[in-house]
Amino acid sequence: MLFESKFTNDGFNNRITSLFGIQYPIIQAGMIWASGWRLASAVSNAGGLGIIGAGSMYPEVLKEHIIKCKQATDKPFAVNLPLLYPSIDQHIAIIIEQKVPIVFTSAGNPKTWTSKLKENGITVVHVVSSAKFAKKCEEAGVDAVVAEGFEAGGHNGREETTTLCLIPAVREAIKIPLIAAGGIGGGRAMFAVMALGAEGVQMGSRFVCTPEASSHKAFKDAVVNAGEGYTVLTLKKLTPVRLIKNEFYQRVYEAEKNGATIADLEYLLGRARAKQGMFDGNLTEGELEIGQVSSMIKEIKPAAEIVTEVWNEFKNTAKNPLSY
């Protein structure tokens, strides 16, 4: 059995579970407008690693979520921090003050804050979309990387490299622990990427469809009802983002087809478009960020059930990879 020596009586033993102090190498992504303290604590309590998504939080809101998460779980949890956030220094100060054990950084240069975080005893993971940037992360001193294929929801790499191509390339480029993301919604996909060299998985879209996710019920229902081909990577002139097709997306599509400039697209996007769609539930005018794996998600269920299902499916697949 490929992973036989890694299974323990109550979980799994590898560099990712050891690094984070968790039971299973299953990580919930820090998604904007979805990943608050309720979701993060539920995943951590179930044996995975829950993440608070700071990208949609003002500093004082982030502090509130960290405090509530610590009250709801005695297990490790993390904060996801986009490095381009305008109040980044305030976020960093709160994370250090609140003694958050793990930080996942993204959307910026890992050299900027990694040493500061590590000086304060914080484990640092950075999200990348290419082997080139994974190597730069290793040089910057991060403890692990998340390699995210373009199947993923939300903002995405310009390279448009699929997860199955990205993971072996990154594995070859770095020696530090590797987490796979993008298009992973179950234990069979987890088995596949770990066979390619990943040591854990990060899942976002699957955890959107939970009662604990703070996103709007209408958005969750739209994800459950999404079929094959319902999402598309768009706004490539700005920051590429994968969206469910709706009226807002259609206007973006028409604008891009007619040669819209960056300024045109910025005006069309406006402010708080993602909040409008995912948090307020405006399925017509909002940005509906989700991954391609949404077509495989058929119901809303508790985060703990998802962790258990993914783990059991992974374990069963590892015992008999040809059973499906």
Question: Can you characterise this structure?
Answer:
With 324 residues, the chain is α/β, with parallel strands linked by helices. It folds into 2 domains: 4-214 and 299-319, Alpha-Beta Barrel (TIM Barrel), CATH 3.20.20; 217-293, no CATH class. The chain is 40% helix and 16% strand. The chain has 14 helices and 13 strands. The protein has an 8-stranded parallel β-sheet with strand order 3-11-10-8-7-6-5-4. Strands 9-13-12 form a 3-stranded antiparallel β-sheet, with helices on one face. The chain has a two-stranded antiparallel ribbon with strand order 1-2. Strand 6 (102-106), helix 5 (114-119) and strand 7 form a beta-alpha-beta unit. Helix 3 (59-72) runs parallel beside helix 4 (88-97) and helix 6 (131-140) runs parallel beside helix 7. It is globular. The model has no long low-confidence stretch (mean pLDDT 93).
Quick structural overview:
By secondary structure, the protein is of the alpha/beta class.
